[in-house]
Each structure stands twice: as structure tokens, then as C-alpha cells.
Model the fold of this input.
Amino acid sequence: GPTEGPTEGPTEGPTEGPTEGQTEEPTEEPEVPASGCEAVVCEFNGQALANPNDCGSFCVCNWAVAVEILCPGGLYFNPSLGVCDWPQNSGCVAK
Done:
């Protein structure tokens, strides 16, 4: 009787907590390659291009590799100006 109680309680709590935190972090990393920028064709270094998958970010060419850059809070990328702009000015329609 008395020995069962204390052993059950502590083992449940600590094992759940850390494993949840650990599993969350690695799952975020595989999403990075599928940003939409891998579909973008870079013509020159430093080129800024619209992200075909996301109005709220854009792709900057680091030589042949397009890197995703997020626009600050709520702004959309405006491809005609090459900057993050108000959504109504950007011409981008969110999917």
C-alpha cells in the first residue's frame, strides 16, 4: 500500500514535461525547406522575389539559393517595389 503511492506520482510528471518540449522543436526544422523559395529561380545575387506560397514573406537570392525572409507584422511583399508593403498595396492575394 504505502510504497505504491509515492513512486507513481513523481514518475508521471517529470517524464511527460521534458519529452513534450523536446519533440516540439525538431518538428519545426523540416518545414524550412518547403518555404516556397526553393521554387524561385534566382537571376542574380541579392535579388528579392515574391514567395509563391506566402504573401507575408519573400525570397532573397543568396547567389543561386533563394532564402526566405519574413515581412514584419502583417505586411505583405510587394513584388513591383521589392519591399514589404501594406497588404492592400502589395497586389498579393493570400492563399
Observations:
- The CA atoms of residues 72 and 84 lie 8 Å apart.
- The beta strands are 48-50, 57-62, 65-70, 76-78, 83-85.
